[in-house]
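User: Okay, second chain of the day. Same drill as before: sequence in, structure tokens out.
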Amino acid sequence: MQRLDQVNEHLRTEFSAILPREIELPDDSLVTVTRVETSRDLQHAKVYVSILPQDREEEIFSYLVKQLPHLQQELVPKLTMKFSPKLSLAIDEHAKHASHIDALLDNLSEDL
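Assistant: Same drill. Structure tokens below.
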């Protein structure tokens, strides 16, 4: 595994652990950290999340963005890196696309 892949996985694991501990989300919601993409210079990292239910995605995402400085502050001591990258959040469109394909396949199998 290359260094950048290791950094991405470490950030994903640590951010995933901090999120439910530090942020109080509505009981009927689920936020999953799907992947992290860190710049080659390790100065920036984009954290991709999947949010359910999708009808509250915008509301929950906005809340997460507001809480990002706090999450970053909690993350820094967990990292084994000299410098911690500046985090940004993004909604993982791949997860939405996969859900849509699953729904299509379910409908297809029901029709058969």
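The domain at 3-111 is CATH 3.30.300.20 (GMP Synthetase; Chain A, domain 3).

User: Thanks, on to the next one.
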